[in-house]
Amino acid sequence: xxxxxxAVLMAISVAFAWIQSDMIKDDDSIEHGWWSVAFGIFVLxxxxxxxxxxxxxxxxxxxxxxxxxxxxFNFLLNSFRKDKAWNYxxxxxxxxxxxxxxxxxxxxxxxxxxxxxxxxxxxQFFFI
Length: 128
Prior knowledge:
mainly alpha
């Protein structure tokens, strides 16, 4: 069942990236905090269905899903935009996470994405 939930969360990441790429094309403002809350609600709902009130497992599940969401979402967003390279990171973003990535890695934020993706995959073996 856990893999079904993870597949749904990846589908949500695809949908969010698609919607936000259209918002960027239309020059609409993206409220990163609200998008994060929306994704978090899905993660919380699935973790509660899987683990009930075992809060440590719920937190670990949420952290693992965040590690999977970040590289998938960033890659997909850039792919849907078509006018940016797959590893593009905005220097004008209002996202705190994007600012931190840019500050730490500069234009090589894809290194952080690979580390997150590898951690996501590795933690699947220990947690799931």
